[in-house]
């Protein structure tokens, strides 16, 4: 009895949006209009140029987000790896060292681990950020030139970045790095296209959503800065009165 009364419209929330893009409540002509895209070098220039308000484009914001998140992940990995190595090296090198007390040993151990952690954060954070930033920049530029998201752009980005990363080892290093980078690009590109294939959103819509969320966060912070109690101490009545006295013209008494 319950199954007979259950309508298909009540069960659509449990089905992927890929299979049900429209319903009976959609009105013709209200869908998002397709924006005419410009390819070639003009498309690349438009992608990396700011808008009329001076704000970066969604593609540039996506690249900056990639750099920030990749540097964070690289820094975490580097700090854990280098601190663990420094901890083990300290006990290995100071087995026969005599310290005055345990506090001196703990202080030296803490200083070595802290310095090693800082080196790991800087080294791996910058490396991963440069690699991912260059990779995403090349992919974005190729996609803007062709006005299409293809696996070729990811493979080309991996080829260039992988070869540059290992060019210091000579020709063999360049070949090995380019090969591994191309394979990595194929994997990342295939995984990305697979997600887009079963998603109702396009890559441009995803980047626009990220850009809009960033703009909303900035506007929310500006609003909170004006109304929140946390920032009210930056504009106290005493400070307002002092600034008002400074703005008043000085009167010269005869």
From TrEMBL:
GO terms for biological process: mitochondrial respiratory chain complex I assembly. It is found in: Membrane. It comes from the Eukaryota. The chain crosses the membrane at residues 124-145, 151-169, 174-196. It is a multi-pass membrane protein. Keywords: Membrane, Transmembrane, Transmembrane helix. GO terms for cellular component: membrane; mitochondrion. InterPro entries: TIMMDC1. Its main location: membrane. Belongs to the Tim17/Tim22/Tim23 family. This is Complex I assembly factor TIMMDC1, mitochondrial.
